[in-house]
Design a protein that fits this description.
- By secondary structure, the chain is an all-alpha fold.
- It is about 30% helix and about 0% strand.
- It has helices spanning about 1-10, 15-25, 30-40.
- The mean pLDDT is about 80.
Amino acid sequence: MMDEHYLHHPFKGAGRMHTWLTKDQGMQVSKNRVERLYYRVMGLQAVMPGKHTSRRHKAHKVYPYLLRNLTVERPNHVWAMPVCRQAGTSPTSQ
């Protein structure tokens, strides 16, 4: 039952699988048993990013923060703009 549910919902870990079994299916099973079956016996794991996804890459350039020691004293002293853009578009084509 767990392996079939995992095929349709690979993003669920053992905790969410335990919630599905107990609340949705009405089974009385402990979380430790679900974790043991899920990870050790069946060898399943949730599909998600691993650890350290926010670490910087050493080859990427680090830009300095230019406003660190600046005190904003009047309106329009400091301007900001979003730097995000859609993938596949260049800033010069607008």
